[in-house]
Design brief:
By secondary structure, this protein is of the alpha/beta class. It is built from nine helices and nine strands. Helix 6 packs antiparallel against helix 8.
Length: 300
């Protein structure tokens, strides 16, 4: 470890689907947060850890900022607001466009009320020409005095190490909070549940994924130690949704399970025997008890 060691907490904010979880997964070098092209992919504050000789960065990936439509949405907004007030550095991800809409302006207003370094990350630069990136930089520079603006492609892993270097420049000197081998504070059960939810998000229709949660009923190593048995339940809100999730002759549930099992085996570095069920809990997203029961606990 160097004589001068920096450490601190960094939150990643932005509108849904801008690439927050993809960026964090690339920065950490391992898949922790689930990704999809649907809104509300990230529901919890997911904490991950990056450690190098210069310092340690604890990342907090927050839910996408959006208007709350139910109690789950209110929980997600609470997670974002509390994250902003606690951090040493804020990363704000946007897309490479000169259009700054209501959502972005609402974020700018929130940023004006904090006294924290803000780094603007213009993501998805692989999807536009270089001139469009330059124009986006100029458009945002007029709206807020950012401490740094960094164009990246999280998906292609372009310029992501510049993000690390810039964060370390703004972090204070501090202790190493976690062992250097630590990459997340998430329990394995929670990561496994999120993997299942990711596969459901990718496989199912747009209307259904918002109304699903995943509960791990059992997760046990076999005595020989070469297989992990996982029993999980996908929770949905409607009878019609249950039929779609299961699919004709169980084909959709098998597809979700097969894709999830492959990711789990990479994560756990062992064979996985995964069994999935589907249950209905009507309007669970408006139930404080069920929201908490499905793992969405508010952290003050």
């Amino acid at each position: 470890m160097k004589d001068t060691f920096k450490s601190g907490f960094v939150t990643i904010i932005g509108r849904p689907n801008v690439g927050k979880s993809t960026l964090m997964n690339h920065l950490i070098g391992q898949k922790i947060a689930i990704t999809s092209n649907k809104a509300q992919t990230t529901r919890n504050r997911i904490q991950t850890v990056y450690t190098c000789e210069e310092g340690q960065i604890i990342f907090l990936d927050t839910p996408g900022i959006n208007r709350a439509k139910n109690k789950l949405g209110e929980y997600m907004l609470h997670a974002v607001n509390s994250a902003l007030s606690e951090m040493d550095v804020v990363l704000w991800l946007v897309e490479p466009t000169t259009y700054i809409g209501k959502g972005e302006r609402a974020i700018i207003e929130r940023l004006k009320n904090i006294h924290t370094p803000v780094l603007l990350i213009i993501n998805k630069i692989d999807t536009v020409k270089q001139e469009a990136v330059r124009q986006a930089v100029e458009a945002y520079r007029k709206e807020y005095e950012f401490d740094a603006i960094i164009p990246v492609s999280a998906l292609r892993d372009r310029n992501t190490q510049e993000v690390i270097r810039t964060i370390l420049a703004y972090l204070p000197e501090g202790p190493q909070y976690y062992h250097e081998d630590t990459i997340t504070d998430q329990p394995e059960r929670q990561i496994v549940a999120e993997i299942i939810r990711e596969k459901a998000l990718r496989c199912l229709d747009h209307e259904i994924p918002h109304g699903i949660a995943v509960v791990i009923d059992a997760m046990k190593d076999r005595p020989a130690g070469n297989i992990v048995d996982i029993d999980a339940t996908i929770i949905c809100e409607k009878d019609s949704h249950k039929g779609i999730i299961i699919g004709k002759q169980g084909n959709m549930l098998k597809k979700i399970g097969t894709q999830a099992r492959m990711d789990m085996e990479k994560l756990l570095d062992t064979k996985v025997n995964l069994k999935l069920w589907v249950k209905i809990k009507k309007d669970w997203r408006d139930s404080d008890y069920l929201i908490k029961n499905f793992g969405f606990e508010q952290r003050e």
